[in-house]
Amino acid sequence: IEFIGLCTDICVISNVIATKAAVPESEITVDASCCAGVTPQSHKNALEAMKMCQIKIINE
To answer: What is the mean pLDDT of residues 18-41?
Structure first.
């Protein structure tokens, strides 16, 4: 399952975490090059938080 979208730090992270909880055995990927946060720092922070939840981040 691959996610992209706006805002990394609001919509993307919440949908990724909800999907991970609903389907824990699935591989979830976020394409960072197709996402943007409210600020560059919040985008980076959201990507780091998702990595800590075992979400694969590509194209950083």
So the answer is: 97
